[in-house]
Amino acid sequence: MQTIGEVLSLALAAAPWLVFGFLGAGLIKALVPQELLSRWVGGNGFGAIFRAALTGAPLPLCSCGAIPTALSLRRQGAGRGPTTAFLVSTPGVGVDSVAITYAVLGPFMVLMRVLGALVTAVTTGLLVAATDRDSRAASVVAGTDSGGCGNACGGGHDHGAVHVATPVGVRLRQGIRYAFTDLLDDISAWLLAGLLVAGLIATFAPPQALAGLGGGIWAMLLMAVIGIPMYICATAATPIAAAMLLAGVSPGTVLVFLLAGPVTSLATLGAYRREMGNRALLTYLVGILVSAILVGLSVDALIRATGVDPGGQAGMVRELLPAWLEWTAMVLLLVLAVRPLRRALGRIMHTLAPVASA
SS3 of 214, please? Predict the structure, then answer.
């Protein structure tokens, strides 16, 4: 029963912020065309790498979902560095994961997570670009190949043109539908698993044992090695991180888990190796590993210097919202996550629409 209580408490705290995050994801999906992304991350220098990391950060894609978008950018002329930066930053943080991070970890950890994801993405992109001796030639080859892929696969410029031609109202409806159907379906099972693991940690893991893990480079290395091969989306990883933080694991070590886990998966590694080669894959892994650990060490040092209490902030955020809003949001998410209930709700809304218009 204690585990159920812990899971319910986390779910209620996160639900309103998840709804807000899904709404933001729908708006981004509706208003950001693929063609704009392709122009924004063109090239292979620092500016392109930074823009790719910045552009990918808010997009509502998990590690597997980011693969086709990243490869599409690559085949439209983006260099290895920007493609890598985009592939790291996109699943590492998004509007939905930022919302739930604020709910269960507090504002300090939100800021550190976003900055950490950007630093990891830019650093890894720069390392991969530095190892690519023929980056200019690769970009030219990728550009010549992009036309065939874009036309055959329905990506690239054609996609952007259709996006612009579609009325804004239609795009908004399509974006919101995407967020509360496709995106919710992608992460709902993993989110439930994350909440259950967090509840089990809070119930059965003695705080003294996890506090013994503490921080430091070896604890962070362990978190990175565990997180890199896992498949866990950024949103689902957040409740687990909250349970570890409240049990005594250092914020820097928790952040390493949040950075290393969501940005990679076996599917990502396989696709990256096929597209970029073994050398780039090794650089990609080293970049994520080293960057995440350096960010974690820096965060723990910053906390010691400033006296910030991330654990205390996590508890304070919960008090900002009324209980009725938490329950309403959680029930809404449950209805939308269960497909038969969602279809029934859709039929009801479809029936009521003519009445409302009359």
Answer: coil
CA distances from 339 to 48, 279, 336 (A): 40, 43, 7
* Of the candidates 145, 237, 226, the residue with the CA atom closest to the CA atom of residue 187: 237
Q: Is 43 helix (H, G, I), strand (E, B) or coil?
A: strand
> Are residues 182 and 28 in contact, defined by beta-carbon separation less than 8 angstroms?
no
The two structure tokens encoding residue 83? 């493609």
**Which amino acid appears at position 236 of this protein?**
A
Which tokens hold the place of 22?
A: 């899904």
pLDDT in tens, the chain (358 residues): 667 876 787 677 777 767 876 787 677 677 767 666 667 776 678 888 998 888 888 876 666 567 667 766 776 677 888 889 988 888 777 777 788 888 888 889 999 999 999 999 999 999 998 886 544 444 444 443 333 333 333 333 333 333 446 788 888 888 888 888 887 787 777 667 767 776 676 666 554 455 556 678 888 888 887 777 666 677 777 888 888 887 778 899 989 988 887 777 666 777 788 878 888 889 999 999 999 999 999 999 999 999 888 877 766 655 556 788 878 988 988 888 888 888 887 777 767 655 444 5
Among candidates 199, 32, 191, which has minimal Cα distance to 99?
Answer: 191
pTM above 0.70, yes or no: no
Distance CA 156, CA 150 (A): 5
